[in-house]
Amino acid sequence: MNALIDGIKGNRFAVFGRAGMDLYADPVGVKSEDADTFHADLGGSSANICAGLVKLGSQASLITSVSDDAVGRFCLNKLAQYGVDTSYIRVVGGEYRMSLAVYESRIENFQNVIYRNGAVDFQVTEDDMDKVDYDKFSAVISAGTVFASEPSRSATFRAFDNARKAGLPVIFDIDYRPYSWPSPEVAAEVLSRAGEASDLIVGNDEEFGFMAGGIDKGLNKAKELAAKPGRIVIYKMGEKGAVTFADGQEIETGIYPVTAVKPNGAGDSFMAGLLASIAAGSELEEAVMRGSACASIVVSKPGCAPAMPTSPELDAFLASHPGPTT
Fold first, then answer.
1. Would you say residue 318 lies in a domain?
2. pLDDT tens per residue across span 68-121
3. Concatenated DSSP letters for 276-307?
4. Neighbouring-strand partners of residue 193
5. How far, CA to CA in Å, does 239 sit from each of 104, 274, 324?
6. What span, in angstroms and rounded, lies between the C-alpha atoms of 13 and 18?
């Protein structure tokens, strides 16, 4: 586990996966179909993780491809505004398009309409991954969506191999999105393979259950993955908190209750808060709690990347908020 923690403490992350545009309805509570105004900002799980990391004082580079059009340039501009390194992003011409999410700030009957037709982020190649200077980084992060299609599937496994050769730990957010995959069977096989190749695995009960072939088998799947020496597995259960498996220990943690305005963005913020906190010297259990606090902050505000907290905002939340549920 020391190599994993040391890599995270290096605080320089190469992140694989998509950027996209988020359009979210304004004001809070209005349904998308009734809205006159939408705010545009950065979206896409990996881009959100990058923005969250940088806001918390980490260095992050996004490795992906974007479309050669206004939306691709919008995403590049937003990444740069958040302080995310874009030097490894390749611009792709033709009919490939950025991911687009249209959603609203409400919990009841929440709707998130995601456009992923001809997604440009799937066009990342093994050559793109070989051009990355892995010596510049201390750890790599991937969201599971990159494995849903070729060539990005093979390219990301190649990046995992390159990271391993460079001595970098691999951090994996399962991030299962059924609509991106050709079939559940392919997804279960590929995501399990990615899990086996990773040093830190984060997912929710449904995602682990999916990898195991049934929701009731998810916890055992997480324990099985955690049996490898040096690996950490975090099994999230929504309102019930999380169980972290590390070095034979099972660490149970709660959540910070808030009035949520939307359900999305929590997982990306959790990952950013977890890693940035370990990098800043927090012990594992405290880092998980700080990640949970980040998730609570994000669901209590509109948008995803713009809702990610800075370090002072996270500290203020923890100071003013009652302790986590047990």
1. no
2. 999 999 999 999 999 999 999 999 999 999 999 999 999 999 999 999 999 999
3. HHHHTT--HHHHHHHHHHHHHHHHTSSSSGGG
4. none
5. 21, 18, 11
6. 15
Structural domain that includes position 294: 2-312
Q: Is residue 118 part of a domain?
A: yes
Report the greatest alpha carbon distance in the chain.
Answer: 53
What would the DSSP string read from start to end of 91-105? EE-TT-B-EEEEE-S
Q: Tell me, what CATH number does 277's domain have?
A: 3.40.1190.20
Question: Do 143 and 134 contact (CB within 8 A), yes or no?
Answer: no
Gap between the Cα atoms of 67 and 168, Å rounded: 29
Enter the pTM of the model: 0.98
Give the model confidence (pLDDT) of 218-236 as tens digits: 999 999 999 999 999 999 9
What residues have CB less than 8 Å from 113, skipping those under 6 apart? 32, 101, 102, 103
Q: Degrees (nearest 5) of the Cα angle 47, 52, 53?
A: 100
Contact 298, 55 (CB under 8 A): no
121, 19 contact by CB (below 8 A): yes
CA Rg value for the chain: 18
- In three-state secondary structure terms, 136 is helix
In a domain, 321, yes or no: no
Q: Which pair of structure tokens corresponds to residue 136?
A: 């510049």
Number of domains into which the chain is organized: 1
Measured CA angle at 201 (ends 200, 204), to 5 deg: 150
Angle at 215 between CA 213 and CA 218, to 5 degrees: 80
**324 found inside a domain:** no
Can you tell me the distance from the alpha carbon of 2 to that of 16, in angstroms, rounded to the nearest whole number?
23
- Residue 112, beta-bridge partner list: 103
